[in-house]
Design brief:
5 helices; globular; 129 residues; alpha/beta; five-stranded parallel β-sheet
Amino acid sequence: MGKKILIVEKNEIIRSSILHVLKREGYEVSAAANGKTALHLLQTEKFDIVILNILLKYYSGFEVISYIRSREDLNQTKIVVISNNFTADNMYRLYQMGIDDMIKKPFPPMEMICRIAKLSELIKAENGV
């Protein structure tokens, strides 16, 4: 069974593209267009991996990451940040917050597939599967 992934991206085209690529690879995928919807989904469902942009409506990606890392039941969730504007300060802050990976937009679909597959293998190893 594929890992459960939440995509949080304000751009509908990018969100739909990631969703399609990951579903095709066998992952169970949900999507949110903003931080508010993401927080609601994180309160009601368990995700193995969250892929998110840092620039979101209502709640920023930083706030969503803080929420994930503050909850003991979500603390093992892998986080991948996607952005087209990683500053040195943002990169440092994100890694300090405990993200697992970052991908600069635009990116080829194969890059997303490879990085998510690597995180999925890491999850399996951590769980002894």
